[in-house]
Amino acid sequence: AQSVTQLGSHVSVSEGALVLLRCNYSSSVPPYLFWYVQYPNQGLQLLLKYTSAATLVKGINGFEAEFKKSETSFHLTKPSAHMSDAAEYFCAVLSGGYQKVTFGTGTKLQVIP
Amino acid sequence: EPEVTQTPSHQVTQMGQEVILRCVPISNHLYFYWYRQILGQKVEFLVSFYNNEISEKSEIFDDQFSVERPDGSNFTLKIRSTKLEDSAMYFCASSDIRVSYEQYFGPGTRLTVT
After folding, report:
1. Between chains, do B55 and A99 touch, taking CB under 8 Å as contact?
2. Coil, helix or strand at residue A29
3. What's the rounded Cα separation, in Å, for the pair A109 and A85?
4. pLDDT tens-digit profile of B49-84?
5. Which of A28, A58, A94, B46 lies 20 to 30 angstroms, CA to CA, from A80?
6. Of A101, A103, A107, A108, which to mutate for an interface test with B (greatest number of B Cβ within 10 Å)?
7. What is the mean pLDDT of chain A?
């Protein structure tokens, strides 16, 4: 079964610093991978998705993620953190015959002024 | 841009009561889903629905839960006899896999069972 593991439940970065949120996947088939963001008391917003077209995926708000098959990773990065990036980020994989999305446990990003 | 909508945004109910959570998926989508997120935990899949029947469900989705598409636009989740542990944020999602496997999520309904 497909699954994802997020390393680090909390990450703190200074404003302007690099953001790196880690995600590793487990899948016996080529995966469809996603990153979602959840701002406090809000729903889930898709940041970006990997669907095998390109290994480096650019998303909204300056985020990008690189699919590395050799490392089974799909880490999320942003060169320079803004205060508005403070939120919880979920890595997710399409699974169950493409019928459901399986989410990771989430990483809360804190941006320090 | 089309979006999934959910009502109400917050529902408070007493233990043992029935609740119905409502969703309006994106109009040309054919697959519909419910997920839940207990406070402080990850988002969990509950059920997927296609062609007026359940196509997959998780172990969480027991006999207390049911889903329905009562008309051409709404998609509902019913919990027959709520328990304290049903308190969670419930997300509806929809997709059109003819175009993309991406699921579009609604803003959620926060259910509080007292």
Report:
1. yes
2. coil
3. 7
4. 999 999 999 999 999 999 999 887 899 999 999 999
5. A94
6. A101
7. 92
The rounded distance, in Å, linking the Cα atoms of A4 and A102 is: 7
CA B15 – CA B4 distance, rounded (Å): 28
The end-to-end CA distance of chain A, in Å, is 41
A32, A90, A99 ranked by CB distance to B43: nearest: A90
Chain B residues closer than 8 Å to A104 by CB: 42
**Closest residue of A to B90, CA-based?**
A43
> Cβ of B87 under 8 Å from any chain A Cβ?
no
Strands A107-112 and A10-14: parallel
Q: Rounded to an integer, what is the distance from CA B81 to the centroid of its chain? A: 16
pLDDT in tens, A42-62: 888 999 999 877 889 999 999
Question: A27 and chain B: CB distance < 8 Å anywhere?
Answer: no
> Which residue do the tokens 């043992």 mark?
B16
- A51, exposed or middle or buried, with CB in 10 Å at 0-12, 13-18, 19+? middle
Residues of A whose CB is below 8 A from B105: 36, 43-46
- Residue B102 burial (C-beta neighbours within 10 Å; 0-12, 13-18, 19+): middle
Residue count (chain B): 114
Rounded alpha-carbon distances, angstroms, from residue A49 to A58, A88, B40, B65: 8, 17, 24, 31
Q: Is the pLDDT of residue A65 over 80?
A: yes
